[in-house]
Amino acid sequence: MSDPPAASLAGVTKRYGDAVALGPIDLDVPANRTTVLLGPSGCGKSTLLRLLNGLIAPDAGAVRVLGVEVTPASVEGLRRRVGYVIQEGGLFPHLTARANVTLLARWLGRSPAEVDARVTELAALARLPTPLLDRHPGELSGGQRQRVALMRALMLDPEMLLLDEPLGALDPMVRAELQRDLRGVFRALNKTVVLVTHDLREARHFGDLVVLLREGRVAQQGTLAMLEGAPASGFVRDFLGAQTDAPGEP
Amino acid sequence: MRGWGIALLVGCLALGCAPRAVRVGSKNFTEGVILGEVAARACATGGATTEHRRQLGGTAVLWRALRAGEIDVYPEYTGTLAAELLRGVDARDLAGMRRALAHEGVAMSAPLGFNNTYALGVPEDLAAARGLRTLGDLRGHPGLALGLSHEFLERADGWPGLRARYGLPQRDVRGMDHDLAYRALSAGAIQVTDLYTTDAEIAWHHLRVLADDRSYFPEYSAVLLYRADLARRAPGCVRALESLGGSLDAATMIDLNDRVKRRRRTESSVAAAWLEEHRGLRTVVAAEGRAARVWLRTREHLAMVLASLLAAVLCAVPLGVAAARRPRLGALVLGAAGVLQTVPSLALLVLLIPVLGIGAAPAVAALFLYSLLPIVQNTVAGLRGIAPSLRESAEALGLPPSARLRLVELPLAMPSILAGVKTAAVINVGTATLGAMVGAGGYGQPILRGIRLDSTATIMEGALPAAALALLTQALFALIERAAVPRPLRGER
Fold first, then answer.
1. For residues B57 and B28, is the Cβ–Cβ distance under 8 A?
2. Which end of chain A is more exposed for a tag (fewer CB within 10 A), N or C?
3. Distances from the Cα of A134 to the Cαs of A94, B60, B92, B373, in angstroms?
4. Do B396 and A53 touch (CB under 8 A)?
């Protein structure tokens, strides 16, 4: 790896009460590639993602993102350089799609012309028909809402994009279409992307690099081909095998 | 916003930034209001600027207000002073009473000349036929039927002692309602009943009041209590008040009560007529129409409701925000507001008098305190009801906490907050009618007066506008909701 990592965790542990949700863990997220955090539910993948934008703080160790350690002082500035999309319900229901997308830019005092131009550009990128921008989230379909959420995350042209099960709540048809479009966006932007999923096929679809987690620890990381060719443990083999055996599973 | 101006003015008056007028207070019954009006008008002829705060409440409210300097003068009875306010002083010992009052910074006028105590009354024609003049005369007529009020039958200073003192032989003694007793007298079912000596009903029913020649009943001489410092502040007023001593006998007082209660004259006109006729004091009675009266009450009522509501919103929403963020603080704030809510409104008003005096200030303060709970509660509920995913999305965007609150959290909580404000406003419109009991005016004033005079029309003059205002408030909030709550959030509830 020639570039320095876009994000790194060093000796990080996160507990909820007595239960260890993550760690201790060391991990580098390479720049300008898509890293998929994969694993069964409860493995700590969402926790890891939330550590990266400082929604939660580690109990031990340090998290560095874009060359800066995530601290209460640095976190607000970092979040504006990192886009974040969650499974569903992330759009503010009292604002139109456009107002959702532009909320932060307007608060930062960006000029209306600049904001409008960027929205038009993003609507094209996210393949959202512009008339839908004046609707409220409640008047959009699930897939449309996720396109708006993606636009909002990309509004300030962040250096890194975090997605937590972005397609998890969509029905299969919409899901397949949005999967395709998302990959197109990632390729076009050539940014650092970290995507959380429990779905192996989605990992295969997006991932340059897969980090398979189990009970808060890294079970194995590498390309999916590496994991399949040389599983590091019985768990890795079972996890990959179980989902391959059940192709009907969305 | 005229209401704010009035609220401000009233607040200023309460703080004493206007020149002090002499304030006369009166208790919540007809004779008290007439005497208050007499005192206020007499005082004004002595050169003082005077205002009369009518029917402020019961003895406790007036006594507190006088000592706190909220009022300067009010009519009282020596028996009440002895029994309730200055324990252990004999009601007939005026010098001893004056000494005890001086410790409180209060002076007492010469007795006005009548004694409003218990007595027994007999129909005039019967009394004439049997030659009944005094209570002792009843001894010679054991066959008379007595109808006595239940309280009088029980009281230590009532029937048992009376019978013993005068050695009365009557066996036919029935307990009955006071008002029914007057009817029973008219119907001839009874011949004797107990009464207050200045009841206007004595004249209507043509009763003779039997003289208490053995001084059995305690003395309830009417006097004017005034603050000792009034002699310095308004010497002319005090001279005028003292000159009223001995000028009002029981028959006159009964007649004055009768003019108000039966003939429906106003207390002002009755007091002014008596002062002019008997004391040669000419005072002006302002003629005011019903519309002007209702408009004045409306302004007073609105000022109370708006001032208290605005203050409550300004305090309760930030409190609710803080309470929603810190569960422990939240429990404390909600607990405290909840306890406040359980204090009966009348008790709260009276408790606030020593701190805030009388008038709009304690009323606004009480309404403010009552408004806190619904607004805090709904603010907390609205903020806590926001989905964690939305809260987190706002945070992940990189908005600082203040911007998250303003742009996301408060707008999302707005339907709930507005509902809380609406609840508080509607409750305030109703509760503000109690403000009249501490001199704040408003729609409660005609209600109190109507209850006192048993006049439904007068009660309606306050009750109807109050109900209309409550409905109007509901409608107004529907409009505010349209303007302040984004469409998607409106439909969800």
1. yes
2. N
3. 12, 64, 85, 38
4. yes
| CB of A99 less than 8 A from some CB of B | no
Whether residue A216 contacts residue A22, with contact meaning beta carbons closer than 8 Å, is answered with yes
In this prediction, the residues of chain A whose per-residue pLDDT falls under 70 are: 1-2, 89, 244-250
Positions in chain B whose pLDDT score sits under 50: 1-6, 8-19, 492-493
Contact residues, B window 372-401, toward A, CB-based 8 Å cutoff: 387, 389-390, 392-400
How many residues are listed for chain B in this entry? Answer: 493
Sign of CA dihedral A182, A187, A191, A192: positive
A83 → chain B, closest CA residue: B397
pLDDT at B176: 82
Closest CA to B432 of B345, B357, B330, B358: B345
Q: Token pair for residue B205?
A: 């029913």
Category of B462 on φ-ψ map: left (φ > 0), alpha (ψ -120 to 50) or beta: alpha
CA dist., res. A189 & res. A80, Å (int): 17
pLDDT tens for B305-323 read 999 999 999 999 999 999 9
Q: Does B489 touch chain A (CB under 8 A)?
A: yes
Token pair 């009006």 in the structure block, residue = B37
- What is the DSSP track for B264-297? ---HHHHHHHHHHHHH----------HHHHHHHH
Residues 6+ apart with CB under 8 A from A131: none
ipTM metric: 0.89
The DSSP code sequence of B120-147 is EEEEHHHHHHHT--BGGGGGG-TT--EE
pLDDT of residue B489: 82
What is the model's pTM? 0.73
Q: State the Cα–Cα distance between residues B292 and B300, nearest whole angstrom.
A: 12
Contact map slice: B 274-333 vs A, CB within 8 A? none
Contact between A44 and A216 (Cβ < 8 Å) = yes
Question: How many other C-beta atoms are found inside a 10 Å radius of the C-beta of residue A112?
Answer: 10
Q: What is the pLDDT of residue A89?
A: 65
